[in-house]
Design brief:
Order of helices and strands: HHHHEEHEHEHEEHHEHEE
Largest sheet: 7 strands, mixed
Number of helices: 10
Distance between the termini: 61 Å
Radius of gyration: 19 Å
Oligomer: single chain
Shape: globular
Strand content: 15-25%
Length: about 250
């Protein structure tokens, strides 16, 4: 299959950036995967990043597997905030880690951190292990973590699912059909998993430790109330360029 044929096939399927996507697929095909097969997977609606097996995110290349949540550009805000909050030797946990992209990107920016990650999805855990090399745990939120981390976490990155259940049908088909529901569904108001994380965070964070999660504008007030009600001090940071919003909830010293 030529580049022109790939572009034509992608354009006919509705890919807005057909030329750019064709170039990404051609680059991946140079490693030995047939281009035609990858084009057909993309035409069928599979996310480009899952098709080529990686995503470039916040300065790192993240390996991806089919069925694993694709890191979003807006989540670079969490990386930036997290990296600014810790130094070498800090204990960092990437909770609901998916591919491990957030932890990987923070470790890239801050050498010498002690990094752990966890996810409930075994496919995500396998993918994150490829990216992080170890200390990736499977289980439901804090239940997955080694007990030795309790009260010692300096930075808790928790990019929890925050889409309200009723809004799931309105997500792009790429997300609905090719990413696990556990990575998307945040319950009735999108904050069910955040509630569970905030409820346990004070026990797991070190004194002065920081929890950072992604939220929407509509969730700001309720998320702040949840954090405050669990003994954490909440602030909210936004980035208009990334169309991103993060809640930072700190355990008092």
């Amino acid at each position: 299959m030529t580049r022109e044929q790939a572009i034509s096939r992608l354009r006919a399927a509705g890919c807005v950036f057909a030329e750019d996507e064709a170039d990404v697929l051609i680059e991946a095909a140079a490693a030995g995967t047939p281009l035609a097969g990858m084009v057909e997977r993309r035409v069928a609606g599979e996310p480009l990043e899952q098709v080529v097996g990686h995503a470039d995110f916040a300065g790192v290349r993240v390996r991806l597997r089919p069925g694993v949540f694709v890191p979003r550009v807006r989540s670079e805000l969490l990386v930036r905030l997290g990296a600014a909050a810790v130094g070498p030797g800090a204990v960092v946990v990437d909770l609901c880690c998916g591919s491990g992209a957030l932890g990987l990107a923070v470790r890239h920016r801050v050498a010498g951190i002690v990094l752990h990650a966890a996810d409930v999805d075994p496919t995500a855990v396998a993918c994150a292990t490829e990216n992080l090399g170890g200390d990736v745990h499977q289980g439901d939120l804090f239940q997955a973590l080694p007990e030795a981390l309790r009260g010692r976490i300096d930075l808790l990155l928790a990019n929890v699912p925050y889409v309200a259940t009723a809004h799931l049908p309105f997500l792009p088909a790429e997300a609905r059909d090719h990413e696990p529901r556990t990575a998307l569904d945040g319950g009735d108001d999108g904050l069910a998993v955040f509630r569970a994380v905030a409820a346990g965070a004070r026990d797991w964070l070190a004194p002065g430790g920081l929890l950072i999660s992604e939220i929407t504008e509509a969730q700001t007030r309720i998320a702040s109330t949840i954090a405050d009600g669990n003994g954490l001090t909440a602030t909210v940071t936004t980035d208009d360029d990334l169309d991103a919003r993060a809640i930072l909830a700190r355990r008092p010293r």
